[in-house]
Amino acid sequence: MAKKLTLHIEADLCDFDELSIVEQSLVLEAQQAVTQAYAPYSNFYVGAAVLLADDTVVKGSNQENAAYPSGLCAERVAIFSAGANHPRKEVKMVAIAARPKDAADYVMASSCGNCRQAMMEYESKQDKPIQLLFVCPSNEILKTTVGDLLPFGFDSKSLKG
Ligand code: THU
Asked: Does the keyword Transport feature in the UniProt annotation (predicted)?
């Protein structure tokens, strides 16, 4: 007989002002990273800021390419840069902001599947949730974790059976 599985995932939607100072400054870093995006093909600018255990912040932005699939999303530019340059530091939090060219406000860029998977690797490696802060329109922030964003995710435990 089939068993119904009910998953519980959590996210909070709050105002920027309700964030802690640390969270607020990471959001500002992500918004700054938006201005460094290289997105001449989509005109969709994304910035990500990764906060590490020792408070180092590593930023990334989407980097596009004339050969479209060779480009990379902001989240992976940032998290891979953090992994490459600070291999032993835990990842506490990632803030993500996005804005189409000439838009007055931010739009929520709910990370693509590849970025969720890439971030999950680091969450699984450190066995501690990575907090995510998504900038939404009107200065609202969606707070969740990588695990909540990627239920039924595949990680190293899956390989062991
Ligand atoms: N993009 C990101 O950088 N992050 C996301 O969460 C969604 C999409 C980028 C990829 C591409 O450069 C552009 O946004 C349009 O898809």
From this structure: no
Would you say the CB of residue 64 lies under 6 angstroms from ligand 1? yes
Catalytic residues: 75
Q: What is the pLDDT of residues 75-125, one digit of tens each?
A: 999 999 999 999 999 999 999 999 999 999 999 999 999 999 999 999 999
141 contacts 19 by C-beta, under 8 angstroms = yes
Q: Mean pLDDT over all residues of the chain?
A: 97
How far is ligand 1, taken at its centre, from the CA of residue 78, in Å?
13
* pLDDT at residue 34, rounded to an integer: 98
Question: Which of 38, 62, 111 for mutating ligand 1's site (highest number of atoms within 8 Å of CB)?
Answer: 62
- Which residues, 6 or more positions from 11, have their beta carbon under 8 angstroms from its beta carbon? 142, 143, 144, 148
| Domain total of the chain | 1
Which residues form the domain of 116? Answer: 15-150
The CATH number of residue 91's host domain is 3.40.140.10
Is the residue at 5 inside a domain? no
Please indicate, yes or no, if residue 28 is contained in any of the structural domains: yes
How far does the centroid of ligand 1 lie from the alpha carbon of residue 157, in Å?
28
